[in-house]
Amino acid sequence: MEEDLELRALKLRKLMKLTALRSRAEKPKGELDFDQALEIVRGRLGDRGDEVLQAALDQYPDRARKVVIVLARMIQAGRITRKIGGEALLAIFEQLGMPVKLRTRILYYKKGEYKSVADLIKRGEV
User: Fold this and answer.
1) Does residue 55 sit in the same domain as residue 97?
2) Rounded percentage of the chain residues whose pLDDT exceeds 90
């Protein structure tokens, strides 16, 4: 009975080593995973860049993830040194065949408060 426990423990240790080796082989050194890449890219975004990136990830999840990883590699390599604005990011996605649709609202200011044009039209104030 004690030998069975030792044998099981030995098998478990071997299995853990093989699993660790496999995970290292699947992810080469220096390879970024999506979460790391996203953090790097978000650190360089400015001027509505977060909004454009989130919309792209919602509309094109797989392809946008690949773009984020490539952008992160370029940032790490020093090829991108400035902030990436929303307009530039939108242009990148459009050039890659991913037209990102952003939610836009037109607001007007009346009597100390902002109201949407949709509300204005609904009320017949036009």
Assistant:
1) yes
2) 14
In a shared domain, residues 41 and 75 = yes
Residues 1 and 56 in one domain: no
Which two three-digit tokens encode residue 3?
């030998």
Largest alpha-carbon pair distance within the chain? Answer: 87
What does each C-alpha distance from 66 to 6, 19, 63, 112 come to in angstroms? Answer: 45, 26, 5, 45
Confidence of residue 54 (pLDDT cuts 50, 70, 90): very high
Q: Which pLDDT tens digit goes with each residue over 58-72?
A: 999 899 999 999 999
* Rounded-to-integer distance, Cα 58 and Cα 92, Å: 16
Query: Pairing relation of β-strands 107-110 and 113-116?
Result: antiparallel
Alpha-carbon separation of residue 69 from 44, 64, 104, 107 (angstroms)? 13, 9, 27, 36
Q: How many domains does the chain have?
A: 2
